[in-house]
Each structure stands twice: as C-alpha cells, then as structure tokens.
Specification:
nine-stranded mixed beta sheet, 24 strands, 3 domains, 20 helices, Ribosomal Protein S5, domain 2, five-stranded mixed beta sheet, alpha+beta, 648 residues, Rossmann fold
Length: 648
C-alpha cells in the first residue's frame, strides 16, 4: 500500500448497523435501482404489485391507482386487507408485540409470501416491498378494511407517527367493504429531480398487468389533468397478442392454451403475421423476464419441434429440405408466454431471467400439445404458417450467403470500412463516438468541425431502407445499411457482438425538419430490430442541434432549441434589435457553429435512447413503420396538434 493511504483504527466500533429502514434511505439505489424518474415510478410499481398479488390469489378483482394534484399517489384494492393484530414474534422498543400492519410497513422482507400459506403465487416476492416505499416517502398513510372495520396508521420517512388506530365501521353500502389503500408522497430529499409521474409510462405497465391477469380491472386516474383509463381483458394473454398485432396482417386466429402442470400454471398465445420481425415476450409471475429463461427455452423448443414434425408429416418439407431453424419458425411470430409458479428462481437481482430447471419441460409439453392440435384441426392455417417458415428459411439462406460474402471481403483491411467514413485516430472504443449524419452537406460541416481524435463522422445519402418491411437478405444488400454495419463493426442480428463495437457512443444527427425526423425514425427502427443490444447497453444517442441562433448587443449570441425556448429568450429583450437565424438544416451551420452547439462535449445536449417497455416499443414501431396505413393515420390525427417545429 502506498505511503499515506493506510487506514487506521479499523476496529469493532467502526462497524455500523443501520436500524429499521435507515439502510433504504442511506442507499436507495440498492433497493429501487436509482433515485431518478425510473426509481420514482418503481415506488408505484412496488405498491401496485402488492395489490396484484391479492388478485393472483383470487382475493381481489379491482385496483384503483390515482395520481393526485399534489403529486401524492394512492393505490387501492378490494383484497383481504393486511392482517390486523399483534405479531407473534416482532416486538417494539418497549417490548410490546408490534401490530402486523406496522411489521409489514416498517420491516424489510416482512410479508405473507415467505413460506406461509398466505400466497401460493406472488409477483412481489422478489421485490423490495412496500416497506421500502414507506422508507422513501416523506409521508405515507395505510388504510386497511377487514371484517367490517377500518384501521389506519401514518408514517413519516418510514417511521410511525402513532399506533395502528381503529377508525370505525365500514358503511354497509360502501362498495369497498374490504382491502388495503396505500397513500404516499415521495420524499423530495431522496428524489431530487422533479417529481413527475409519466402517464404513458404508467398506462403501459397497468395495461400489461391487466392482460396477464384475466378478469382483473385496473383503473388509473390522473387528477393533474382529469384523465382516466380502465383496463379489463377477459381474454388474458390472447387479448395481449391481439393488441400487439393490431397494426399487422395476421395469418390465423391466436392459438391459445392454459394448463396446470405439476403446480405451474402455463398460459401461452401464438399468432403469425406477414411481418419479418419476431415479437415474443415471456413473463414469470407477471414479471417481464427480458432475458428469457427456462420458460422461454421450453416455448422455443416446442415451437421448432412441433412445426418441423407437422411439416414433415404433411409433406410440406421434402426429404431434401433441411429442418426449420428456430429463427425460421419465429419470423413474423407474435407470442406471449406467461407462467405462474410458487418458488421462482431468478438468475439476477433485476429478475430478468428465470432459472427454474423444471419449467422448461412443463412449458414445452403444454405448448407442443396445444400447437399440434391446432395444426391438425386447421390444415389451411397450418399450411399458411409452414409456407411462411419455408419462405423465411430460403431468405435466411440467401442472407447467410450475403453475410459470408461481407465477411470474406472484410478479411482485406482496405475493404473493412466504408469509404465515406471519416474515422477518428483514437483506438479505444470506450473513448470513441460516431455521428451518423444526414446528407453530404451536413457531413462536410461535421467532418470539419469535429475533434478528429475521438469523433468519427458517417454521412448517409438520403433515407435508408425501412427495415420494418424488409427481410435480412434485402437489408444486407442496401448500401447505406452496409456502410452503417461496416462502420460499427459489431455485426447484425444473431451475429451481433457488442465486444467488437468500434465506438461506444453512436449518435444520430439529423435536420430539425420532417425529413430529418423520418430519417431518425428509420435509423431507430433499424437499431431496435437488428441491433437491440446497442440500445440495451446504453450506446445509442440522438444529437440535439439548435433550431435558432439569436444575436443582440444585450445577450450576445444565444442558441435555442424550440420555438417555446425562443419566445422565452426574446421576452425580456423587449424592443431590442435581435438577429434571428432559423436553422432548417445542419448544412446551414458552419463547422465552428456545429462544434460549438452540437459536437462539443462541454456544450452539447445528447438524448440517450432507452426502451422502458419492449412490448410498447414493438407495437409503436410496427404501427409507424409497418404496412398497415389506418393505424398510422389514426396516430397522426390524434397527435397532430402536439407537433413542434413543423416546416410546411
């Protein structure tokens, strides 16, 4: 150890024990992931998950979530209500038994899901619990209705302000005869960014929950602007698949199955469309396992084996034809696989992958049985599915040959990178970034204005191929897409290797007009469909070039990014003489201005591209970029008044 860095007096007195919920307040990120807007929404999810568990137990069929005008949140269910009465083992500071409500609300990992008989299946078992929400709330009020009576307890920053109190009897005509209501105010000393709940983010989550729990009604009220939405789906995951395929041409009705096998409830819905992308989502106890796991492995095995067996038996696959691969049978597939089990084993803290070994065989058996029966009973639809797989198989072989050609060419160093790429001199990918720029004019300014040490520029000519409507072989034949793949160096689709990525920041930079927005959407579609790991690992960004340049004696030079910002900047200037320059395109900026506003890391603003909800993103890209016109027209008509900076 270097001199002067030695730690002294490390003894027993330095070992800290954080009492109660103090650990949550000291290290909130360990419990809810972060203290930004994601962590804020996680508070809502944790409380709603408790209500969801009552619905999973068959004890509740109604949940109401309300964002109040004062930015407090309440979640109410008509379940059994948290048990009332002295806990058999937990005691307070005076040695008296704590009430069960106080135990649940103030002690981490306390609840009815740890080995008791209160819940057979729970979605919140691996969550941080409502006690962590209590710890991170400035104030919280718990209201319980059981046996015709109502009890309450209030808390401030996780600590009770008094005992559990009996409020009185529940009126007999009250529709909420039983259940739990949690009302909390997020602590602004923990969540230091603006406390702002996103309506659309919460709506997506609640819709998903309602799909996964058939016959549950979730009502979401936002008092800030008097919006209300209710979700209730009798069809379960079959309704979920129909929702995802709303903007797609389907080849058959959904294949649906639900069956109990050795204590595991397996529910699945399968439907093929005429698209080229795969939309398969797996859930375990209502948790979206984005990295899959044994349930998804079992589903894929059943799908591939069953379709190959049927195709051989029906003579649709000839002896000379190879078997369909997993990629062949999943092209154009939309599927939801949802399982509910008593003891889920997740392979990471984020619950993104299920590890229960027995689940693979259970899911494989249930799905294979159901799909085989559908194919036998519906020969016309079966032929359409097999024909789709055959076409995919042949196109995939053509794509493989095209990819092999690209690989053989890239063996020569001179052919590895596209000629239009202006590369940087730095060779550490972590320090490098690449700007994907619209057009040669903007590319010229960017090349002159950049820092050549770590910034590379790739100009694209015109609009790239809409990859939502094209197979891999056609995509690989497109010159602009090939340039993009070659420049990034990490491959595409199942050949993607993030370890070979040449730049750790890929930045889309387009004009602030309709064409620029379209090009940006085309690029985002490509990355979402064929390089999703780029987004998942936080490597994709969108540049924010200014819309106006303002200059006057009073303010000097000021750049603003929206019409609203321009109005705010001009207001205090009164009748001053101001020169206003409107940038219709990046090419109108000289290299110095482009560096100052958009390229310089010290001044620029970058938006990082993330995917909060993959199912919502999937449906949005399909609606905006797919073949069906009516859904896109409805979207444009609905949101037309929200458009800013539109050049007509």
């Amino acid at each position: 150890m270097a001199e002067g860095t030695k730690t002294t007096n490390y003894d027993a007195s330095q070992i800290q024990v954080l009492e109660g919920l103090e650990a949550v307040r000291r290290r909130p990120g360990m419990y809810i992931g972060s203290t930004d807007i994601r962590g804020l929404h996680h508070l809502v999810y944790e409380v709603v998950d408790n209500a969801i568990d009552e619905a999973l137990a068959g004890e509740a069929d109604r949940i109401v979530v309300t964002i109040h005008k004062d930015l407090s949140v309440s979640v109410r269910d008509n379940g059994r209500g948290i048990p009332i009465g002295p806990h058999p083992t937990q005691k307070d500071a005076n040695g008296k038994p704590m009430d069960a409500v106080e135990v649940v609300m103030t002690i981490l990992h306390a609840g009815g899901k740890f080995g008791g008989s209160g819940y057979k299946v729970a979605s919140g078992l691996h969550g941080v619990g409502v006690s962590a929400v209590n710890a991170l709330s400035a104030s919280m009020l718990t209201t319980v209705r059981r046996d015709g009576k109502e009890w309450r307890q209030e808390y401030q920053r996780g600590k009770p302000t008094g005992p559990v109190k009996l409020v009185g009897k529940v009126p007999k005509d009250d529709p909420w005869q039983r259940g739990t209501q949690q009302h909390f105010v997020a602590d602004d000393t923990i969540f230091k960014e603006e406390i702002d709940y996103k309506y659309d983010t919460l709506v997506q989550r609640f819709r998903e929950m309602a799909f996964l729990i058939r016959a549950l009604t979730i009502t979401f009220l936002d008092e800030r602007d008097d919006r209300e939405t209710s979700f209730h789906f009798e069809g379960g995951v079959k309704s979920f698949v129909r929702y995802l395929n709303k903007s797609r041409t389907v080849l058959h009705p959904p294949v649906y199955t639900e069956k109990q096998m050795n204590g595991t409830n397996v529910e699945a819905a399968i439907q093929y469309t005429d698209t080229y992308t795969e939309s398969v989502y797996a859930f375990a106890n209502n948790i979206n396992t984005v990295d899959g796991g044994t349930h998804l492995t079992g589903f894929k095995s059943a799908l591939t084996r069953t379709l190959n067996d049927y195709a051989r038996k029906a003579g649709l696959l000839k002896d000379s034809d190879p078997n369909f691969s997993g990629d062949d049978v999943r092209e154009g597939l939309t599927a939801i696989i949802s399982i509910k089990l008593q003891d889920p084993q997740f392979e990471s803290q984020t619950k993104s992958k299920l590890g229960n070994a027995e689940v693979k065989g259970q899911v494989e058996s249930v799905v294979a049985e159901s799909l085989s029966a559908f194919l036998e009973e519906n020969p016309r639809e079966a032929k359409a599915i097999i024909t789709k797989c055959l076409t995919a198989s042949r196109a995939r072989e053509a794509a493989r040959q095209a990819r092999d050609l690209v690989i053989r060419k890239s063996a020569l160093e001179s052919l590895t990178l596209p000629g239009k790429l202006a590369d940087c001199s730095e060779r550490d990918p972590a320090k490098c970034e690449i700007y994907i720029v619209e057009g040669d004019s903007a590319g010229g300014s960017a090349k002159q204005g950049r820092d050549r040490h770590f910034q590379a520029i790739l100009p694209l000519r015109g609009k790239i191929l809409n990859t939502e409507r094209a197979r891999m072989d056609k995509i690989l034949a497109n010159n602009e897409v090939k340039s993009l793949i070659s420049a990034l160096g990490c491959g595409i689709g199942d050949q993607f290797d993030v370890g070979k990525l040449r730049y750790h920041r890929t930045i889309i930079m387009t004009d602030a007009d309709v064409d620029g927005s379209h090009i940006r959407t085309l690029l985002l579609t490509f990355f979402f469909r064929y390089m999703p790991q780029l987004i998942e690992n936080g490597h994709l960004y969108i540049a924010q070039p200014p819309l106006y340049r303002l200059e006057s004696k009073k303010i000097g030079i000021q750049y603003v990014y929206t019409d609203a910002d321009k109005d705010v900047a001009l207001k205090p200037l009164g009748s001053d003489k101001v020169t206003i320059q409107r940038y219709k395109g990046l090419g109108e900026m000289n290299p110095e201005q482009l560096w100052e506003t958009t390229l310089n890391p010290d001044n620029r603003t970058l938006l990082q591209v993330t995917v909060e909800d993959a199912t919502a993103a999937d449906r949005t890209f399909d609606m905006l970029m797919g073949d069906e016109v009516p859904p896109r027209k409805r979207f444009i008509q609905t949101h037309a008044k929200e458009v800013r900076n539109l050049d007509v």
